TetR family transcriptional regulator (Leucobacter insecticola), 190 residues
Amino acid sequence: MPEVAPTRRRRDPEARRREILHAAAELIVENGAATLTHRAVAARAGVPLGSTTQYFTSIDDLRESALQQLADEIDRELEEVHEYIADIKTAPERAVASLSEFLADPRAVHAEIALIMAGTTDPRMRELALRWSDSFADMLAEHLGRTRAVAIAVYLDGATIHAGLHDHPLQAAEITAALRALAMMPVADA
């Protein structure tokens, strides 16, 4: 039998870029955006150190791309809540179930907190960090008015921080009671 030369594995630059980006996003979720280094990302992705600078021009570029990926994930979760928004005043249970699922997911909570922290310390990241809260408030405003919508979005930002700091997130009944109170509060723009 003739000897067969081993086949070389084809390089897939886009797959390597995705691996690096995924590793960076996970490190941000675990440790925060400010601690990201090329060395840590390369080690997590299992790629040579030079690969991180080959695909991303700087650590800032890598950090911003990873935060963008995390924001995109959160946007997809927000889309799931969108269909329940119209009923949040009269029947918030479906929205609360979805929000409770989010708050019980440590990775999702830490990703949102990482975005919030990046937005508070890096003006370039502020718009990205505000995207969830502002989009959620815009969706709610159509049904509840701007003041109530902002109050609920701010409450949920706080509930997210609470979930990140405590062993257990707020209970669904607590969230439901708060949302009902905020959705019914007297305001001039309602």
